[in-house]
Design brief:
single chain; alpha+beta
Length: 282
């Protein structure tokens, strides 16, 4: 057959889409068929799947819960605010008035660069308006709100008006395109395990089981999986949700970062000291 008569990319993709899927499941089958025929690569398929799932995912599935929010009190002096900003390395902070349910606005870390003196400093003068959204908000709706309002953070409130958590535009985009690491994320090999300011350890899901065992004096087997993420996935039989906790052989894990397809970062409690036997040798 003459090479000029072979159907091109557009023709082949069009022939697949002309099947007119009746529901989302059939659409995904067509997309997977396109991937298997090399009409799209794995990254494109993953992004499409993530975009489709965004309309079914609520903000509560990806938000940072209220108890884990890094907030600044409006009455904190500047010399206390700056160390918090440096340590947490966030670009935005909810500012509260004594209570996490009373959020006055959002502080942008970059605005602190414009403050040259603590004299007559009033944090209220530097606040940006906070965006509040209900727990039932879907990610596709929130992303559209972020685009229109040009905000990058929203406060999630429950049915009683209390603060349930916060969600950022990065959280939403990671559900679509996967993990987005920035210059503040630890990604060097020796930083796969890092002590957190709370006394717990941040552990990359890609950390080798052997390295984890060495760091925590554990003896998890690496015969069936190579990484800590594989250990968690095998134990649960699924991808865990953000903030989900579990215990494996006495070690407590909490999911810090994950999306609908991948596990990225865990919080691990420090190992408990082994009990010392008081039994004297005979």
């Amino acid at each position: 057959m003459d090479s000029d008569s072979k159907p091109g990319f557009i023709e082949r993709l069009t022939s697949l889409l002309l099947r007119e899927p009746e529901d989302r499941q059939q659409l995904m089958q067509i997309l997977h068929a396109a991937y298997e025929r090399n009409l799209m690569d794995a990254d494109a398929l993953t992004i499409i799947e993530g975009a489709l799932s965004a309309s079914e995912t609520r903000v509560t599935d990806v938000m940072i819960p209220r108890a884990q929010m890094d907030v600044i009190d409006v009455d904190d002096p500047l010399d206390e605010i700056v160390p918090v900003v440096i340590e947490t390395a966030h670009s935005r902070f909810p500012v509260v008035d004594g209570d996490r349910d009373n959020i006055l606005g959002i502080l942008l870390a970059k605005d602190l660069l414009r403050i040259h003196t603590e004299e007559n400093f009033d944090l209220r003068d530097w606040l940006r308006p906070a965006v509040f959204i209900p727990e039932s908000t879907r990610l596709n709706v929130l992303l559209r709100e972020f685009r229109v309002s040009r905000n990058h953070m929203a406060i999630v409130v429950n049915e009683y008006g209390g603060v349930a958590g916060l969600v950022t535009i990065e959280d939403v985009l990671e559900q679509i395109v996967g993990d987005i690491e920035d210059e503040y994320d630890f990604d060097e090999a020796h930083d796969n395990i890092r002590l957190d300011s709370t006394g717990r350890y941040r552990v990359k899901a890609r950390t080798e089981i052997e390295d984890f065992n060495e760091a925590f004096s554990t003896d998890f087997s690496n015969e069936e999986f190579d990484t800590v993420g594989g250990l968690i996935l095998r134990h649960l039989g699924r991808v865990p949700k953000r903030n989900e906790s579990l215990e494996i052989d006495g070690m407590r894990f909490q999911v810090l970062r994950a999306d609908s397809r991948r596990l990225y970062t865990l919080l691990v409690d420090p190992p408990k000291p082994k009990p010392v036997s008081n039994d004297a040798p005979a």
